[in-house]
């Protein structure tokens, strides 16, 4: 399958951006190298990008990526090599890792993600076993996967300040679970290294903290390569003390929506973009595309139907939404046939190891493509994001993917800074 | 083209070895991770291996690898990612690198190697230019390569304690020149980082030092996975004060040959190998397969023809041979059709990034395949060395390549230890 076609009517500015990125490549890589000397890259990360033709920006940064199965199998060695580098930093003696996944064991796609992640780690020479938080799993349980593979989930046990499996005392606990429903007691106060740290879970993480860090990173980057930071950074603001069901805090949301729409309108005018601005209203904590809506006018927020209110009121596993983020919507103008597509970039440590497109036939260019129950078609990137070709035209897939890899790494760097800050906050509370 | 066929008549023991390596994979990777905490991996390295069916061993470790063009182009991203890790360690600010190649600019294969290396570094975001030691190049000179690529060689200039090009003051000097003819004055006492260090060149390097370090590494590794170290380590010894033209020192060589043949015979008896043992006599310093001969009896050394003496007396660029190493010969039982093949593994930093086979139609199973004027056919590995498959049979290419990658990394680790020792020797001399 080909790389998604980018709507050419608006391809001028993004090609300029791509060209800027390509031309500045040695400076960008050197700058990133320097940044990684002072900031520790998250263990792994996926970043959803949107490419509107005039703007290329991250819209979501996932610290517990769940789509390793969607990557191009040909680039498995890249994942393994990056995993070797990643595991080095955790603990040199790291030989055994306990992987703790999400609890939705009936999602075959998620199980395939686990199998892919397991294989990457195994090939990097790590002994991995999978321990589940599900209380109904009381003995090792083998699950069949399409293609004849099996995945074994085992019940985790707490022993003192360690989590273990039967005959398996791991030195590292790797979370592939975003802790949306809180941090389970069994994972608290462990003496083992837990990666990502517990405060990277949605119990404490806030999207607005991430995008505040991204503000900072994207400004530095923009001044490095001499561009308007808006080209890579969506406007956003947040509101607290919301209760959608009880219509509390709606004014803040509606006003924030209008403010951001106003800011976007000014930028659209500056760049001659003839499109309707829109914003995305989403839960500040939480994931899985729940509690997300597209809004084109603040008044819409005040006239939500009961169904819409209920939909916005809770995220995954019934967690109540009290804080929301309003973020500039970035159109996606990448298409595969008539379907809209959104690139997702995968990183292990500070290395871009691949990516794929979420291709969705039933969604619009201004809608979230990672929604509950959605059935996107993953389209693995054919190329890596590592081989830009200055001789080729900007817009060719190698160059587009390199630019994607750069912007995704800016989000990764923002995540690193965000985690430093949340760690500092926790230390301040404990002190 | 398929992976070379391994002669099956003798494939039993090597499959046992491969199986041991596969089974011990997490222990091996953990042990290597630990070793790289205390030993700095060379910047890059290639290792020639021989696989006799009953034995798999390195026979040559090159710290200035010259065949990057022979690697599978599909694995270019692996090279780029490893280069990013390698360059990080040299100096974070490393943005500009001066690459100093060998002076044989008429060898189109070597120029293609330079172009490949240049491309890898460029994609890792490094600004690279090529400075030549050739006095006849007094201005930037563009050389045409097959496929329409160009390579520009520029004259290097000394400015104080730095080497520079016109408008280019690099922070790192990368040697792809093995200094067989001595260390040029222009490269001495530089304040810039020189990698590999000057003492890695053949002016000071000795094969016997490398294999002494490999003795140590292979013994540790053998006890880790519970095998006879001989299965991965060729016997060797060295003789000094040789002058082949004047027939000086021949007794030492002949006696050493007989001793090593005796040791091999005992091992062959132990393992039931029905083959004639042979040794390789080679210059202790130097490369390019010059000054190398296959010997099956010490008496042969005493009755060399004048032509043979002359051939042994000098290596590359006329350097006189005064020290030789006698090394157990390892048969190669890998074949492509009727041609013999020898695997060469490439590493950047501590990562295996690919490999190829030297395929030679006119050489025997007991001959050196990297000889002057030889025209081997490079056959790029179809797979990386990173994805062993425990479900598959030992001997399948993924598993064979993983074993090759492990043995090559043992040689890499030996090179790291060898360089530490030579640095310590230099410091002792300077003190």
The percentage of residues in β strands of chain A lies in 15-25%
- The CA-CA distance between the termini of chain A, in Å, is 55 Å
Describe the largest sheet of chain A: 7 strands, antiparallel
Q: Can you count the beta strands of chain A?
A: 21
Largest interface: A-B, 38 and 37 residues
Radius of gyration of chain A, in Å, reads 21 Å
Q: Enumerate the spans of chain A where pLDDT stays under 50 for 5 or more consecutive residues.
A: none
Regarding quaternary structure, what we see is homodimer
Give average pLDDT of chain A, whole number.
87
| Series of H and E elements of chain A | EHHEEHEHEEEEEEEHEHEEHHEEEEEEEH
Name the structural class of chain A: alpha+beta
Global shape of chain A: globular
Count of individual helical segments of chain A: 9
Helical coverage of chain A, percent range:
25-40%
Query: What is the total domain count of chain A?
Result: 3
Pfam families (chains A, B): GshA
GO molecular function (chains A, B): ligase activity
Keywords (chains A, B): Ligase
Protein name (chains A, B): Glutamate--cysteine ligase
